[in-house]
Amino acid sequence: MTLIALLIGLIVERLATQLFHLREFRWLDRLIDAGFRQAGRFANWPALIPVALLTVLLGLPVFLVFLLIFGLGDALFGFPYMILAIIVLFFSLGPKDIGEDIDEYCRAAEADDEEHIIRSAKALIEKDVPTDSGVRVAKVEEAVCIQANNRLFAVIFWFVLLGPWGPLGAWSYRVTDLIRRRAVFKASRAGDDSAAPRVLDAATRVHGWLAWIPARLTAIGYAMAGSFDGALSAWRSPADDRSEHHGDSSEQLLARVGVGALALHDLENESDVQRAVRGALAAKGMVYRLFFIWAAVIAAMTLYGWSV
Known about the structure:
The protein is mostly helical. It is 75% helix and 0% strand. It has 12 helices and no strands. 40% of the residues are buried.
């Protein structure tokens, strides 16, 4: 049932693009900020405690609804569960569609609109955008490989892994991402707030723990969807830039292996704009190929009765 709900949910997600703005959950920002303030008040406590409690609090409504659904048992042939699972999956993915963000960046690059380029690139990088065009091109390609796991593949992984509780796993992952993204925003505007770095580190750690396994599966997938030799070489590259931080190490692995799997080389007489567009579209194509690989595997699991 869970895998069937996943396949239907992915189809619905592709058809309901006009509803993507509902997945940004701006109304949760105040609740997350309140949790951050509590972390600041208890400076002697590890920041992981309030971040973990905040994650549980944001996931509680979905948990309670699922308890109600499970209480109904097989009533209506499990239809209430499937509908709820599809809804939860839809709101767990994203929040933005990575393909649309890439297309927006390409349009900005082709129009040579620097302000638009910076804004669209930041939607993917989620950090300050380099002003050097060559560095920016590389960062965008890396960001696509990272965001594909963050917005899509890690959500699918937790949805499938936990079986009947898969929707709760997918939503929990999205909650940790919402908290992490808000922590990044607050830290960039923290000023003298000494609690902001602690909260950001804790939020990144919690999110990194949930992203660790799916990140490595996604990296393996890049090797299958792109250049295997390039991905393998990148995976075996020296560990000088690797971090002990789970979140950072996963992102570095995805960026390194993803770019290696793209195996792009500079072309003669190619302009910066052409290189930027070619790289972004190549990364988008690799992500879509990997998505179809995952969909085929999930469909096979469903057909062979592995659904739960």
